[in-house]
Write a structure and sequence with these properties.
This is Chemotaxis protein. Helices cover 78% and strands 0% of the residues. With 111 residues, the chain is an all-alpha fold. It has one domain. Helix 1 packs across helix 3. The longest helix has 40 residues.
Length: 111
């Protein structure tokens, strides 16, 4: 199935927003995990060294997620710039822009 420019734009917007949301959720879960590990060590009266390697790895993964989030934000900006330059599609800031409206448009065009 060939996508029209508007359908492709709507799909990209929806998938990009979903990716951003999921990345934020993963970042939040990872930060929560870090807090739980640290609090568990305190509550258990564990040695300061216990679990340190795991904490360091988790902090590195959180840093990587933060870098990925920044790259995804730059991707979002680049795609918006391309869309504005092309001017052959309606971007969300020019319409309702809600994910529900985009999903509805995609469903209608797929039918």
């Amino acid at each position: 199935m060939t996508l029209t420019p508007q359908t492709a734009t709507n799909r990209i917007i929806r998938e990009l927003c979903e990716s951003e949301t999921e990345l934020d959720r993963t970042l939040a879960r990872s930060a929560s995990l870090l807090a739980t590990i640290a609090q568990s060590r305190v509550d258990a009266g564990a040695s300061f060294a216990d679990g340190q390697v795991a904490i360091m790895r988790l902090v590195r993964s959180i840093s990587s997620l933060t870098d990925a989030r920044a790259d995804l934000a730059r991707t979002h900006g680049e795609l918006r710039r391309i869309g504005e330059e092309r001017a052959d599609v309606i971007l969300p800031h020019e319409s309702t822009g809600s994910l529900e409206a985009i999903d509805s448009d995609l469903a209608a065009q797929a039918a």
